[in-house]
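A note from the maintainers: we've had questions about how concatenated examples are separated. There is no special marker in the raw files; a new sequence line simply starts the next protein. For clarity in this README we add a label.
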Amino acid sequence: MKRIITLVFAVALLFSAVSTEAQTLKKLGAKFKEKTERAKDRSDDNIDEKVDDAVDAVFEGEGLFKKDETKEDTEAPVASEEESRENSASDNTASANVSPTLWTKYDFVPGDTVIFEDILENEQNGEFPSKWDLKTGNVEIALYDNESVINFPSTSVSQIVPLMKETGDYLSEKFTIEFDAYFSEFCTTYHIELYDVVNQKNPDNLPRITIDPKSLWMDQFGGTDIPENKNYPYWQRVAISFNIRSLKIYFGEQRLGNIPNLRGNPTGFSIRSEQCHEGNWAFIKNIRIAKGSMSLYDRVVTDGKFITNGIRFDVGKATIRPESMGVINQIHKLMTEHSDLNFSVEGHTDSDGEDASNQKLSEERAAAVKNLLVDMGIDASRLSTRGFGESTPLDSNSTSEGKANNRRVEFIKI
């Protein structure tokens, strides 16, 4: 059973007699312990019940929206460093225990340029997340599996928006949104608005997107069911792709919805959630918004190369994350359809860490990408590899967004 580990509780136990502040910390720590013990009891009961049905069809089917006139638009039920911050390699991350080669139908490709990223770097436990603004409720940083997460800490609805350099329409005609969501029980729910509820008005009566472990619902368009993974709690990657008019929504490797015409112009991003039952946590992490998109072939023809920050790796390793398969599947398709295309696969890092380590890591990651493509059927003679470490940045290394743009793989036509 996973537990929220709070630093305040540990400090309170060690220094309870030192000062008045320590006494306050001790009381807060005791409160968290009580909640996590209650959560454990409930989770153990859930795991024991019908465990054989736990993971039967998590990644089956693709699902398109079908209008369901019987389902009401209701609120969620309310009961009485370099890349370590980007993607943890723990057992319960969004893609844990899933081989990248299983995501063969995944076609999500992130936008070209990251305009917002929150990997919760240098955040303080118990504080409000520094890169967000609050619309309603209460949100705080918590520690889960020794990693910072954004916590919706009560059964009251809380809603937040990212702090952007621009407060107007900051989403281009082509953009993507990604985040990891934590599902602690069947009714854990996340609501997404495609505008900034603090700084913007809903420009075109844009539909709200509602995701829980069993279904996706979208106002005006209806919903679709999700084969339920009953092996709670778990993380899942949620991704949204918008291209001029069309909208796609992904839950893990599944594409749940494909709306050909949204009939509106998204201008921003807002998310809200709450604990469905007290002590059953709702978290998000690894939030990224990116803009721009062009077919890989058009980029090769125009520029002689293409650059992607959509190939992700485990912390400090050359292990490719499953969510990278949208990009890799497209590259495989491109090289299969155009047998004359050969590439130099070139790895790049941000400036965090030692120069020598980053150089070695970039070389290993480029080789890992080549090896995966070869395993998928591309002839090894068509691919070479190089690593450049942190030596050729595309963006500033002084911001999270700049570092995200610098962590990239380039495919240079040869």
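[label: protein 2]
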Amino acid sequence: MNRRRAGKRRLSPRALGLAILVHVVLLTLVFVKIESRIHPVPAAPRQRPENVVDAVAVDNQVLEREKERKRQLELEKQRKIEEQKRIEEEKIKKAEAEKKRLAEEKKQAEARKKREAEEKKKAAVEKKRKEEAARKKREAEKKKKAEAERKRKAEAEKKRKAEAARKKREADLKRKMEAEARQRRAASAMSQYVPRIQAKVESNWRYPPGGPAGCNPTVRVTLARDGEVQSAKVVKSSGDSYCDRSVETAFMLASPIPIPQDPDLYSEFKVIDFPFRP
């Protein structure tokens, strides 16, 4: 540090003049020495050694100072080179660090983007899974509800059919019982009315030429509710056509014939296969 300060100091005017004088003297001596070799000259009286020593000492100081100044300049130059090198290295390090930082940021951004894409994909898959689960649940509930409704309807239909079958059985039984009762009443009424019908038909019957003997056809008679004879047709012949026709005519002439007035019995007397037996 002190050397740098010493190198930067300026020479005083006195020292500078002295240094110039020393150089001039030295140059003169060198020139005279060369001349003396070429043209010998008488020897000059010797100068005082003290002045020469002083000049040489001053010149050495100047040279040392110049050397030191050059060394300091070289050091300064080297320092600047090193400083510039350090700055360049710092720039390179900063550039590499920035490049590394940008690469790391890019890597992190790509990783984040990839992670976000994966999360989005997972979210979409999860959403689809939930939607599918919800759909299946709805379908299962719908199917369960439909199955329950089907079972309910089937049970209701089973009950309805069972009830209908029960009612039908009851109705059939009732009809059967009513029919049997009606048949019993009709049979009873028939046993009462057959002689009356036979008597009225005979009163309107004209005997065939062969007489009443053997004239016993069965005649199918269709009657109205009031006993009006709508038709009379022999369904089982007596073997005598004249007899058969005379009986048919007798039924028509006997109209109306006596039948029960009970409407429930009319179906039993609407069509009668009447065995005519005079």
